[in-house]
Amino acid sequence: MNKNKIISIFLIFVLVFVLMNSIFLKSSVRADSYRYDYNGGNLDERKYPGFKSRIDEVKRRHPSWQIKIMETGLDWNEVIRREGDSVGSSPRSLIQGKFGEWIAGNQTYDNGSGRAASDKAIAYIMDPRNWLKPDSSAILQFMQLSYFNTSDDDVKSALNGTFLDSMENARVINNVARNNNINVFFVIARIIQEQGYNGGATWRMQSDGKNYYNIFNINAYGNGVSTIVNNALRWAKDKGWDTLENSLRGGISKIGSNYINQKQDTLYLQKFDVESKGGLYFNQYMQNVDAPRTEADILKSKIKKINGVLDNDIVLVIPVYKNMPSTPAPEPNTSVDIGPVNIKLTGGHTDWNVRADASTRARVVGHVANSDTIVLSTWRTGNGWHRVVLTNGVAGYIYFDYDIWTQINDVTNTSELMSVNGDDVAFRAGPGTSEPVIARLNRDSIAVRVDNTGRYNINGYIWDRVVLPDGRKGFIARNYLEKLDNQKNGYKVNLSEGYLRMRDKPNGIEIRRLDNGVIVKVLEKGTEKINNTIWDKVVSAEGVIGYVSDDYLVSLNGQKDPSPAPDPVPSNESIPAPESVPDIKSQPAPTPIPENGNSELIGDKDDSKMIIRVSPKAKVDDLKKKYNNVKDISNGELGTGTKVKIDNKEYNIIKLGDINGDGRVTAKDSSLILKNVVRKMNFSDDQKNAADINKDGRITAKDSSLILEYVVRKINIEY
Q: Is it true that 416-483 and 490-575 share their CATH fold?
């Protein structure tokens, strides 16, 4: 036997060995899934504990729903491990806005807001038993997403309040969904999930003077907004998506061919690729581990608009796994105290390890030498682990044993009044871009800097420790701060008694009351007298912008501004403050509005938007006094969303502060604004107009606070 023949036989043997092993390995780690209709008695409770009783309750509450069991053939623990793997430089599953047991490490991904989801978080969200609740929106993550007959008018109704609200878009979306056999409400929910209600950065992009559209954020990945947008743009240009319709058609077609037709035909299966037809763990639409639930919320809100849909045409596909625990996976611990505190080792302890993760098995990333070293603890979990940052920039975890560690007073070296000089500036729990964001601060917000030593030089920024006016402590990158002194327009209110009114414009309506000694930043010095007063444009410590009398401001060094002294201010500019604010219930009834109405409470018609802005106390009689030929008022209480006809033109009423449209401004409206701020509630255009109390073009917690002050009669708010 010659040498070449021997080599050939050896290669054949090796090839056969590799093929046999590949077949064996494939069969050992990947079992084909199969589906069957649940009939109440064909689910093995011993094999899949805790499913039958929950599914039976769903069927009892929704007898018309069809339930399909999807036996994945996959081991539960293996699935959780694989869904926690990394793909390239990024984890397969990310989570936003969670800490403690929800996250694995503190590295940020995507646009900086995502962190790697922990095994506990993945198990909790992936366990179908946690979401088999008959009336919850979360159960719709298991809904089969095939098309069912839907009219263009129904689609138009579902698009209300979104950036795609038009009959033309409704027809295109419905037609493309029908042609691809995809549930049209899922398509709308997916668009909102990706772009929000107002449209995100990628739905319309410009390049070389031309528009491109990527409505579904296809190929929009990367760490940082610019990278994400560039990748989305590159994909859209390559596909020729130079119109919204092209993007809709191309995106829906891709979702259909790449997911729905691969039997990844539920929201759950599009995130968690446990369907063997298209491959395992790889073909996943999104990284956000909680996306199936949040998208299901949107899906239900759109379907509810169409009568009868939730009682018919619903098919649920419930995945089950081998070797699942007998009880549903528990929700991860969220008990986290966020914010900086200083700690140090007690005497006698030296060379303490700082670890990469909250585990004694995690690798060591740094050391605390002895009790002479001050350690910054930025957040603390309920199980004893502290996230810490050392002065050399090393960040990691220590276990806080009270016999070993002790908390000490804040380490401060200064007390400087600072002003934020950027928009949407991150106020973080610790120094560094990987630290949790406590709040986003508006330009001209005020803070007290208590540490300007520059000891934390991390991620290319020097981080200063500051305290906000409400007492919250944290860090801001130094380049977003400027010192507020007498050279930088820092002033304080100087009164002998009472308070100073802040107004929406010179000699305008009161929006705030400033006590003696309160610090403000002057944005513009007044030059002309209005009502015998020079008015300065200022911003308060909370970021509220308004106008106050220059006569009651002195620079921070205690000296009156050298500008010419104004004439005496009318006595009503300084009013003694009440001793206390009475309980709301004990307040006397407001002065009745004259029967013939008060036209000053009604704004001018805005024919470009077909709206009329009114004050919180405005009534129908006030509207009728201002305008003739008022007809067809849809609501006896003049509230946000009320429709009126004037001269055969229909207008929407915008009542400032009335978010729920009941015609009143109450603490409930304040609460709704906060829900919108934390993205638990989306507002219509009318609601957005009504919620912007301070008229800065944004909806923030400040607007919520102003409503509460109005409720307890500390301030007045007007259109």
A: yes
**C-alpha to C-alpha distance for 591 and 680, rounded to whole angstroms:** 37
Mode of pairing for the β-strands spanning 461-467 and 446-451? antiparallel
DSSP state of 492: E
Q: What's the burial of 639, exposed, middle or buried (CB within 10 Å: 0-12/13-18/19+)?
A: buried
- Residue 616's region, left for phi above 0, alpha for psi from -120 to 50, else beta, is alpha
Q: Please give the Cα distance from 550 to 536 (Å, whole number).
A: 6
- For the record, the structure tokens of 489 come out as 């327009």
3-class SS of residue 438: strand
User: Angle at Cα 119 formed by Cα 114 and Cα 124, nearest 5°?
Assistant: 90
What is the pLDDT, as a whole number, of residue 430?
92
Q: What is the pLDDT of residues 574-605, one digit of tens each?
A: 333 333 333 333 333 333 434 457 778 888 88
Asked if 501 and 714 count as a contact pair (C-beta separation under 8 A), the reply is no
Name residue 642's amino acid. T
- Residue pointed to by tokens 């009651």: 552
Tell me the domain boundaries of the chain.
1-30, 336-408, 416-483, 490-575, 597-711
CA distance 443 to 60: 55
User: May I ask the CATH class of domain 416-483?
Assistant: mainly beta
Helix (H, G, I), strand (E, B) or coil at 544: coil
- Can you tell me the distance from the alpha carbon of 112 to that of 431, in angstroms, rounded to the nearest whole number? 15
What is the Cα–Cα distance from 298 to 106, expressed in whole angstroms?
Answer: 29
Unique residue bearing structure tokens 């609200």 = 165
Position 119 scores a pLDDT of: 92
Determine the 3-state secondary structure of 148 from DSSP.
coil
C-alpha 686/C-alpha 635 separation (Å) is: 15
Question: Distance (Å, rounded) from C-alpha 256 to C-alpha 279?
Answer: 16
- Look up residue 92 and give its amino acid: R
Reading the block at residue 154, the tokens are 């129904």
Find the radius of gyration of the CA atoms of the chain: 31
Contact 170, 245 (CB under 8 A): no
pLDDT tens readout for residues 223-266: 666 778 888 899 999 999 999 889 988 888 888 888 887 888 89
* 3-state DSSP of 360-400: CCCCEEEEECCCCCCEEEEEEECCCEEEEECCCCCEEEEEC
Q: Facing residues of 389 across strands?
A: 376, 395
Give the type of residue at 88.
G
CATH superfamily ID and name for 490-575 = SH3 Domains (2.30.30.40)
> Can you name the residues that pair with 475 across neighbouring β-strands?
428, 465
Place of tokens 């229909």: 650
Amino acid of residue 695: K
Beta bridge partners of 513: 501
Cβ–Cβ under 8 Å, residues 656 and 614: yes
What confidence score (pLDDT) does residue 490 get? 79
Homologous superfamily of 336-408 in CATH?
Answer: SH3 Domains (2.30.30.40)
DSSP H or E segment with residue 499: strand 499-503
Q: How far apart are CA 706 and CA 540, in angstroms?
A: 13
Question: Alpha-carbon distance 685 to 699, whole Å?
Answer: 12
Q: What is the pTM of this model?
A: 0.46
| Nearest to 571, CA basis, from 551, 545, 553 | 551
State the fold for domain 597-711: Type 1 dockerin domain (1.10.1330)
Structure tokens that stand for 558 in this block: 């205690």
Residues in the chain predicted with pLDDT less than 70, given as ranges, are: 1-32, 87-89, 97, 106, 110-113, 222-225, 278, 304-313, 334-335, 382, 485-488, 541-543, 557-596, 635-636, 678-680, 712-714
Percent helix, percent strand, percent coil in the chain, to nearest 5: 30, 25, 45
Residue whose structure tokens are 């500051």 = 466
